[in-house]
Specification:
- This protein is mostly helical.
- It has a two-stranded antiparallel ribbon with strand order 1-2.
- It has one domain.
- The protein is built from 10 helices and 2 strands, in the order H-H-H-H-H-H-H-H-E-E-H-H.
- Helix 7 runs antiparallel to helix 8.
Length: 262
């Protein structure tokens, strides 16, 4: 396995996790897909291992991001606690769907998702003034986010941040809160991918269910160091630059994955 590639991916993912509250999965999943493809892993298993491993790494990076955001007083803990039950339930549902879904179509769904998110971040409005729904409405939103995030191997920030911003939450506070909700999301999703993939044939060597341990270790080693850096940058850089820069980056990744699928 290409350790250098994993370390670079972990560095970028960790910075993105702290910077934008997105967990880094939108970077890790396409990178791991390319790494596993180069090793000749079964294409139907490949994307599921990439997603499961990505979610496991987000568990670790989320902890460092949360701590940095919390020290700056940016996390809305009451909002995070309300949304957590929905996101946990949705995460388990997403893991079950991913297990049953053909690998090719899961890859196609991920590419479409990346394109939508990237376009939204580049051209979408930065801030809205719509009222937040009630507690059960917030839980329903997080259930949907948890389900899709588990399917895509991401921390949920790619959807939570735009939604909370649309509801009038300042972008930096939305990022910090999304990063916090990303921890229970990633933990529940990773457990789901371990359980559903446990004992399956054709998994890469040293895999625990759909979580590949060497890839997990390589990415976490770098991402843990860079997540605090990203969180600090999130409180320094202008909001508009944060969104536009990352939107362009996601768009390029989506085009690369789409090309590989053709």
């Amino acid at each position: 396995m290409d350790i250098t590639t994993l370390l670079i991916a972990g560095s970028i993912a960790g910075t993105a996790a702290g910077l934008l509250g997105i967990g880094g999965g939108v970077i890790i999943v396409p990178v791991l897909s390319l790494v596993f493809a180069a090793e000749g892993i079964d294409p139907d298993i490949l994307i599921k291992v990439a997603v499961g491993t990505s979610l496991a790494t987000i568990v670790i990076t989320a902890i460092t991001s949360i701590w940095t955001h919390h020290r700056k007083g940016a996390v809305d803990w009451s909002l995070a606690l309300i949304m957590t039950p929905g996101v946990i339930l949705g995460s388990f549902v997403g893991a079950m769907i991913a297990h049953l879904m053909p690998g090719y179509w899961l890859s196609v769904a991920f590419v479409i998702f990346l394109l939508i998110v990237s376009i939204q971040m580049v051209v979408g409005t930065l801030q809205g003034d719509h009222p937040l729904p009630g507690d059960w409405g917030l839980r329903a939103v997080s259930f949907v986010v948890g389900t899709i995030s588990s399917l895509m191997g991401i921390g949920g920030g790619a959807m939570h941040v735009p939604y909370l911003s649309w509801c009038g939450i300042p972008v930096k506070r939305a990022i910090a809160t999304a990063a916090t909700i990303g921890f229970p999301l990633a933990l529940a999703s990773a457990v789901g991918f371990i359980v559903t993939g446990y004992g399956l044939p054709n998994l890469p060597q040293y895999s625990f269910g759909y979580v590949n341990l060497p890839a997990f270790g390589g990415i976490v080693a770098a991402s843990v160091l860079f997540a605090p850096l990203g969180a600090r940058l999130a409180h320094v850089l202008p909001d508009i630059i944060l969104k536009r820069f990352f939107g362009f980056f996601l768009f390029i990744l989506a085009l690369k994955m789409a090309y590989d699928l053709l």
